[in-house]
Write a structure and sequence with these properties.
Blueprint: H1 6-21, H2 24-34, E1 42-51, E2 57-60, E3 68-71, E4 75-84, E5 87-94, E6 99-106, E7 113-117, E8 122-124, E9 134-143, E10 148-161
Length: 162
Amino acid sequence: MVTVGRLELGVISVVLVTLIVTSPVVGILDVTERNPTTVGDGTATASVEQFDTDALTIDRGRFGTRVMYLRIPEATVAVTDVRGRPRIVYRIRVPELGVDTTSTELLTGAGATNVRLGPRDRGLDPAVVSDENYHGIVTVRVQSFEQDRTVYETNETIEVDK
């Protein structure tokens, strides 16, 4: 029969408690509740507070580059009543140029907050861009497995500054 002394029993107890507390199951449950990383079921109330339609333009790149850029302004979305894990989707489409770009933000917490979204400016082939204006579609949606609701949609004329 093997006898275990008090010191060995204490060390074994500390090791077991440490393994249980730091196990992947405890870590996953803890992180998922505070900082979800994926969309799930959920809802939220949202409205676009700021979107500068005049800043949605096409112009030549800086420093003498020959690339044209679709300049995409940031959108500020007021969010309240968040339940679950929905996300905000900010999307800009310019069908004539084949542009379809999005920026998303996963929502957490139930309090009111402002979310700022802004996809990067999009480089365009100057041979494809003409002097005429283009038609753009801007949408902001609340999306989850439970719902996909458009909270803002506008058609914009995008001026070309060559």
